[in-house]
Amino acid sequence: MRPEIRTGGLRLVLLRHGQTEANVRRALDTVPPGSPLNELGLTQAASIAEVLADWPVRAVYASLATRAQQTAAPVAAAHGLEVTVVEGVHEVFVGELEGRADRAARTAFDDVYDAWWAGDLECRLPGGESAHDVRGRFLPAVERIVKQHDGPDHGAVVLVSHGAAIRLAAAALLGDTAQTQYIPNTGRVVLGLDPATPTGWTLELWDSGPELPGDVTAGGSPED
């Protein structure tokens, strides 16, 4: 069930991009511009635009990745808006694991993410980023977006990003180390700006579903 549409209070909609062929292959694709949406991904982008069409969307942002911008485009068009590309919200850089689709690579990613979830945010992917690195670039981008749109008529701001990056950012905004819940393609994590809470945010919605084996950056488990 979707949350009630509201017009008061800023709502941040963290939206995962649609499906790509790299997703289908279970390949770790983290360096922008990356893979474009496939046919299903384009359909998913159109569908989520319809879901958000009656929300009071004030702005639409996307990461540097092609797939994020393609997902954002129909959402923005439904509200007569342009997509603003923002740095800092791209996927967790996996370093030496980039482009790999084998079980060992996906297990290596899971092992590092498990360390983050356990509180070791300094743990680093081989040749890649730590959780602190991701938060260090993602959260300032969110702060800039919020500062620009926080006002009397808040509405909703959509930010199209990536599975693992969204999980880490959402956890930070909610006062946790990392989130392990799966985020499907075009799944939403909806946060409400709430000064009454310790972190200033509350979780309103987390779209989920059956985990897709091998879709590790969205929270799935490696497959054989």
In short:
The protein is built from 6 helices and 6 strands. With 224 residues, it is of the alpha/beta class.
Task: Describe the protein in words.
The protein has 6 helices and 6 strands; from the N terminus they run βααβαβααβαββ. It has helices at 21-25, 39-51, 66-77, 103-117, 131-149, 163-174, and strands spanning 11-16, 57-62, 83-85, 156-161, 188-193, 201-206. β5 and β6 (201-206) form a beta hairpin. α2 packs parallel to α3 (66-77) and α5 crosses α6 (163-174). The chain is globular and about 50 Å long. The protein starts with 10 loop residues before the first strand and ends in an 18-residue tail after the last strand.
Order of helices and strands: EHHEHEHHEHEE
Query: Over all CA atoms, what is the radius of gyration?
Result: 16 Å
Oligomer: single chain
How many E strands? Answer: 6
Strand content: 5-15%
Structural class: alpha/beta
- Regions with pLDDT < 50 over 5+ consecutive residues? none
